Each structure stands twice: as structure tokens, then as C-alpha cells.
Amino acid sequence: MDINLTLIGQSISMLLFVWFCMKFIWPPLMQAIEQRQAQIADGLAAGEKGQQKLDKANVESKEILDEARKQATGILGQANARANEIVSDGKQDGQQERERQLSLAKNDIEQESNRARDELRDQVAQIAVATAEKILKREIDAKAHEDILNKLAKEL
Amino acid sequence: MATENGHGPLTSGDYIQHHLQNLQICKVDSGEWIWNQCAGNPMAINVDSMFWSILLGFVFIIMFGAAAKKASPEKPSKFQAFIEIIVDFIDSSVKDTYHGKSSLIAPLALTIFMWVFLMNLMDLVPIDWLPETSKYLGIEYMKVVPTTDVNITFGMSIAVFFLILFYSIRTKGIGGFIAELTLHPIAPPLKGPGIIAAPFIIAFNFILESVSLLAKPLSLSLRLFGNMFAGELIFILIALLGVWQLPLHFGWAVFHILIVTLQAFIFMMLTVVYLTLASEEH
Fold this sequence. Notes:
The complex is a heterodimer of chains A (156) and B (282). Chain A is an all-alpha fold and 156 residues long. Chain A is rod-shaped. Chain B is mainly alpha-helical. Chain B has one domain. Helix content of chain B is 66%, strand content 4%. Chain B is globular, with a radius of gyration of 23 Å.
């Protein structure tokens, strides 16, 4: 337990170790720690900023969505009204067209039937005359009965 | 307990003596260096203390150097995180006490803490392992806990003492340092008839302040030495108890973990406090 040279040896080695620590160990470790602290602080700040931006964007998107919904509702209403209009217009047109076609067809039918009736009448008269001629050829003088025949023809 | 080199059974006293003996080499009057016959010789070196102390210093340097080399702010490894916890702990302890700007004090504190901690930690290696191993290798004495050697603790506290002187003179100048030693705590009268008493007061102050200055390294080293030496001695005594040593050894070892850490921390903290006091203006 005597004091001896070990004391000086220990002092010297201590100074050397302290010097080495001061030169090569402490600065890089401290630098790494401080850099990381700065990075973490930056990261947290950025995160908070991002959160704020997100909140703002959420509010904005909600507004935009509401606006769009409102517009869509308006457009839908207009479109419905327009569609109703078109349908009713179409109905009216169709009605008119139908009536027009109907009256045309009626006219056609009437004309045709008139024509057919006239023709029929002529033919019946001729047939009647022919039949009467054949019956009367033997019994009646055509001249004598001409007035009756004409009268008949007219009545038919 | 083993028998020693066939010299018959070992007594408890021999066992304790053997465990407290350093492996020494010294220069004798004839100029030769001889082993283990160095009692009272100031030119002796405790080879085992120096060996373990420097080895553990290198353990510290390599451990922290490896972390420092790979230190990166992104993605620290678990090892780096562990090292950084220690560094950060030391850094905050130092910053709490020392408010000046110094690139020395924090690394000094880290070195002292880790080194003393590692040296103290050797106390937890079972007491006979390393001495018996070295005896097998032909080395007779092997004291493995450097901090149980008063030379080691004194060596460190003397280095701290010179740092205290350096910091005192750096902040106050040589005049200021001398004034601090002589003009406190009783201010000597500088005029009037009382000036006759001034030399006595200055002498009184000087003695008082010198004692308090010298007490700093002395108490620093003796506190560490005393704690570790006592702890080591209790381990040795427990080892003499036969089978009962097992639970006792365990209990004392657990308690010793506290002492090991605490003494390292106290040595570091007091060093920082002394250097803070030395670099403060009055």
C-alpha cells in the first residue's frame, strides 16, 4: 500500500485517455446526438405543420363537396324540369300529328268511298238497263217505254 | 482456499495477505529491476494495477470509440443508443453544475466515470478466478481491482488537482489565485495600526486555504480507495467462510453494484464540482 511510481503512471495514462476521449470520442457522439435532436424537433414541427395543412384541406374539400352537391342538385332539378317539358311537348306533337293523320285518312276514305259509290251506281244502272233490255226486247218496244226507262235510270 | 506452492496449508491471514499484495516490479540500489521485493521502495510499479487500469481504459476507449466512429444521427444502433444514453447522462450532469464553456470538462467527466466504473466493476469478478489463473500461468500476485490500490486513486486525483490549479490560474490569473489563498476567509486590514496583524492573518489564511485545497484531491482519492478497498476486503472475508460464502457473496455483490456505480459517479461529480469552483470568479 506504499506510494510508488504507479501513481505517476496512472496520472499519465489518465491524461492520455482523457485527451483521447476529448479528441475522438466526445465530439462525434455529441454531434450525432445534437443533430438527431435537431432532426427530431424539425420532424415534429413538420408533422404538426402537415397536420394543420391536412385539417385545412379537409375543411376546404368539405366546402367544395357541399358546393358541388348543391350544384348537382340544381342541375338535376333543371334536367328533370327540361325532361318533363320535352315529354309533354312530344305528347302534344304526337297528338297533333295523330289528329292530322287521322283526318287525312278520313278524307281519303271518304273520297274513295264516294268514287266507288258513283262507279257502282253507274254499273248497276247499266246492268239494270241491260237486264231490262233483254227482258223487254221481246215484249216492249224500246221507243214506247223509253221515258220509263230514263226515269228508272235516273232514280237509280 | 488453495495451498501455496506446496508450502503447506494456507492460513486465513496468509490468504488475505496474498490477496492484498500487488504484483510489483522495482528498481533496487544496484540498478536492477526485480520482482516482488519492493516493500517501501518508491521506485516500484504495481504491474497488476497498471495493467488492469490501462486495459480497462482501452475497453472504455474502444467501446466508445466504436460508437463514435459509427455515430450517425439517423438510425442509431442499439449499441450506439446505449452509449449515447451514458454520454447524455454525463452531459446533463455536467451542464447542471458547470455553466462555462469548456471542451475538456465533459469528456473528462465521461472518462473518469466510465473508467472508474469499469475498474470498480472488476470487484464483481469472483475473487479467486483471476489470481488463481495467473498463479497457474506463473504469476504469483494478481490484484485485479485497480481502485483498491491507493496509487491508482491518488494518480487520478492528482491529475484532477493539477487541472484545478490550471483552471484557477486560467480564470483568476496567478495574482488572483494567490489572493484567493491568502485573503480569505479573514480579510487582512490594509491601513491603520491593524496592519501589523496583516502578515499573521495572511499566514493563517494561507494555511487554512492550502489545507482545504489539498484536502480536495486527498478526499477524492481516499473516498474511492476506502470504499473499494473495504468492499474488496469483505469479499475476501466472505471467501473464507466455506459453503456460506455462496449466499453471502451474492448478497454483497448485489449491494456492491450500487457502490461501484455510486463511487464512480461521486468521483466524477466531485471532479466537476471542484473544477467549477476553480473556474468561478469571486
